[in-house]
Amino acid sequence: MSSLRATSKIHPVTLSCDGLWKVFGSQVEKLRQNADLMAMSAHERGQALRDDGYIVGAEDISFSVHAGELFVIMGLSGSGKSTVLRCIAQLQQPTFGHVMLDGVCLDTMPEAELREIRRRKMGMVFQNFGLVPHFTALQNIAFPLKVRGESRANIMAKAEEMLKLVGLEGRGNAFPSELSGGQQQRVGIARSLAVDPEIWLLDEPFSALDPLIRRQLQDELIELQSRLKKSIVFVTHDFSEAVRLADRIAIMRDGRMVQLGRPADLLLRPADDYVTSFVRDVSRLQVLRLEDVMTPASKAPNDFKNAVSLDGKTTLEKCLIDLAPGQKHIIVTGYQGKIIGHFTRDHLLQIANNEGEK
Ligand SMILES: Nc1ncnc2c1ncn2[C@@H]1O[C@H](COP(=O)(O)OP(=O)(O)O)[C@@H](O)[C@H]1O
Ligand SMILES: [Mg+2]
């Protein structure tokens, strides 16, 4: 039984993109019939298309989002993040490649079926929310539930709950024009959450908010996610937001995905200078956990004395705070308290010192 529980962390895939391309330009629909182009490697094809004057919004993007995973796509403006998100929702048709949701291929699906999938399985928040101006906040939030034909009592209860969730309790009767930009965006977020989607596609939903409110909404998303375990694709240009939220991050540049990994992977092993430029300002102490930096081992070294045992999930920051002055050695534990590695106070201080020098 225990081995079964240990493997229960492998969640099924909810969404996957397989060799996804979005090319902008004239007569792109004919590109698929170009045998020479189709025979090229992804790199050659991207180059050939650019040489011919096409804009390659997304180039050979492949990734899977697991059930309950918060997957972040991060990159500078124009790197192709929204293009990938729009292709996932099929608001733009991919030029090449496939998008699968719960095992069903979306890129070949008739529009009527797609509309139903968007309505029932996808929650979408884009940069500009497009609230209905003559609907109140509550009516805006209730709208997708009405479209689904739910009962009035259900609709109102859910809409009120969502309003509270985004901190707008008591403002349900306000019209969008009576709300601040940040508040309007909160209504948009609440509206997308109201349908309880299987996959949330969020395109820079917090970008226009004040830092404090933004942080609050990030916390709410984290809290919500810990309860609901939704599959989320979250787009941002803000690396620290990505690191705060993500289980995994895909970094995009010029339409390409340059690295995919957990926040700790990106911090410890950035693929290139572009990724390095983002990770530079992020606190290693806050992001890295003992399991990311420990020496893996099944028992403590013989010279370990007065060692403290800490869970592998402990952040280095917390570790630094918790360590008593005399404690030099740390034993790192994992599932059911088993030893998975060790670490020393000196290593920890070294990382902290490097941080201080930045
Ligand atoms: N409809 C379009 N027609 C032509 N080019 C487009 C279109 N949409 C996006 N692009 C181009 O594709 C690239 C990626 O854009 P986008 O996905 O919006 O970037 P991001 O969301 O990362 O800021 C940009 O160079 C952009 O100009
Ligand atoms: Mg965008």
Keywords:
single chain; alpha/beta; CBS domain Like; 2 domains; six-stranded mixed beta sheet; four-stranded antiparallel beta sheet; 16 helices; 14 strands; 23% strand; binds adenosine-5'-diphosphate; binds magnesium ion
Question: Can you describe this structure?
Answer:
This protein folds into two domains: 11-282, Rossmann fold (3-Layer(aba) Sandwich); 286-357, CBS domain Like, CATH 3.90.1280. Helices cover 40% and strands 23% of the residues. It is built from 16 helices and 14 strands. The strands form three sheets. A six-stranded mixed beta sheet has the order 6-7-8-3-9-10, with helices on both faces. Strands 2-1-4-5 form a four-stranded antiparallel beta sheet, with helices on both faces. The relative contact order is 0.11. The protein is globular and about 70 Å long. A hairpin with a 5-residue loop joins strand 13 and strand 14. Helix 6 packs across helix 7 (152-165). It is of the alpha/beta class and 358 residues long. The structure holds adenosine-5'-diphosphate (ADP) and magnesium ion. The site of adenosine-5'-diphosphate (ADP) has 11 residues, from strand 2 and helix 4.
